[in-house]
Amino acid sequence: MRMVDLIAKKRDGEELTTEEINFIIEGYTKDEIPDYQVSALAMAIYFKDMTERERADLTMAIVNSGDTIDLSAIEGVKVDKHSTGGVGDTTTLVLAPLVAALDIPVAKMSGRGLGHTGGTIDKLEAIAGFHVEIDKEEFVQLVNKDKIAVIGQSGNLTPADKKLYALRDVTATVDSIPLIASSIMSKKIAAGSDAIVLDVKTGAGAFMKTVEDAKELAHAMVSIGNNVGRKTMAVISDMSQPLGFAIGNALEVKEAIDTLQGKGPKDLEELCLALGRQMVYLANKASSLEEAEEMLKEVIHNGKALQKFKDFITNQGGDASVVDHPEKLPQAAYLIEVPALESGVVAEIVADEIGTAAMLLGAGRATKESTIDLAVGLMLNKKVGDPVKAGESLVTIHSNRENVKEVIQMIYENIRIADHAEPPVLIYEIVTE
Ligand code: URA
Ligand code: CA
User: Which residues of the chain have pLDDT under 70?
Assistant: First the structure.
């Protein structure tokens, strides 16, 4: 097999065989096929697309380029949730204990945040003592005992994806549905769960800016998952404005606690229920999505979900008393209000820019090496569609420095007030096949 022939084949719009795709990914991972040939192939895929079969094969070739996590020692159907990334997205913190409270194993591998999006591990580390540096045996043991554990990313997972993604980044081939879908799904599949629930975000704060693109990506990923034997569903949700009120690590832990008690922000709660019911259904614990939703509401109502969050914190070395005493979470030194300059209705809160404002305060990382301040962040006092009077606070800044002029300016530039506005649609589509 010669790489040049395979590039020509894809350039001419033909379908690559399973063997050809494996040859390319294996050769590239071993540095036997050079970047320039893979660049040309990526561009051909960008223009000529891939069939569902090719996409599934590409995904599995990337999975097989490195280690995979074996979760077979964990009893039950393991369901993982993945978000394509957003601002103030506190859903994992809520969903993990919520679903585990229904005896569904949550064996979560998580990462840290970068840029305007936060990471689950950073948020959990806002709880004193909490750590994710546990070994594989302890991880499995915790999930079997209490149905929930979170571990940091480790091992040599999907090395082909790391090389490909870096190459695509500099060859204008990131924005290709088959390449994005196989990249994301390969990482989820290598992480070992039996079923996958995807939260595909759309809007300013999301990777997919339009609803049409988000739908195409969601359908592509669901199809890959189901074609390679992992039951997969997706929700397409709004990320034009941040999710919930809190953006920042300790602030989001508090918001998750509120939501587990049934008193969280409406949008966060609705999205958690939409994703959670798919997880419960895919774990074979309910015979319909409606029944699954009732089960989730029940464990919020009877306190089991909150208790599960406490057990989870204790198991991983954290101080679970923060659940009843959230004032024990890291607190910022200064609370600074940002008053509305005019009366009207909030028409826009630009998610990525507001996420960047929180990052500038220290809540997120500008680069992988940055250190973060777990106490700081932003609390939205208004969401899109809310009426506001001049002088009322739009946002409360939680800061550890007194001078936050540039943050205030960014907030004003990215919250628009108009005469009329409606709240955005939160869930655009539920993708079940
Ligand atoms: N996120 C990924 O993990 N891969 C892509 O290709 C794009 C976004
Ligand atoms: Ca939030």
Answer: none
| Judgement on whether residues 123 and 170 belong to the same structural domain of the protein | yes
Task: Name the closest ligand to CA 166.
Answer: 1
**Torsions phi, psi for 125 (to 5 deg):** -70, -10
Residues 183 and 233 in one domain: yes
The tens digit of pLDDT for each residue in 386-408 reads: 999 999 999 999 999 999 999 99
Tell me the per-residue pLDDT of 231-277, one tens digit each, with 9 for 90 and over.
Answer: 999 999 999 999 999 999 999 999 999 999 999 999 999 999 999 99
Q: How far is the CA of 129 from the centre of ligand 1 (A)?
A: 32
Cα torsion for 395, 396, 398, 400, to the nearest 10°? 100
Q: Which residues contact 168 (CB under 8 A, 6 or more apart)?
A: 42, 174, 176, 179
Q: In terms of domains, do 336 and 320 share one?
A: no
Instruction: Look at residue 63 and tell me if it is in a domain.
Output: no
Q: For the domain that residue 16 is a member of, what is the CATH number?
A: 1.20.970.10
Q: What is the CATH number of the domain that holds 386?
A: 3.90.1170.30
Domain that holds residue 371: 331-418
Determine if ligand 1 sits within 6 Å of the CB of residue 184. yes
> Which atom belonging to ligand 1 lies closest to the Cα atom of 183?
4
The closest residue, in CA terms, to atom 8 on ligand 1 is 180
Give the number of the ligand closest to the Cα of residue 118: 2
Tell me how far the alpha carbon of residue 384 lies from the centroid of ligand 2, in angstroms: 14
Annotated catalytic residue 183: yes
Q: Which of 122, 161, 199, 352 is catalytic?
A: 161
The active-site residue, picked from 55, 78, 116, 168, is 168
Q: How many CA atoms lie within 13 A of 159 on its CB side?
A: 12
- Whose structure tokens read 């993708």? 431
Domain-embedded: residue 65: no
- From the centroid of its chain, how far is CA 254? 18
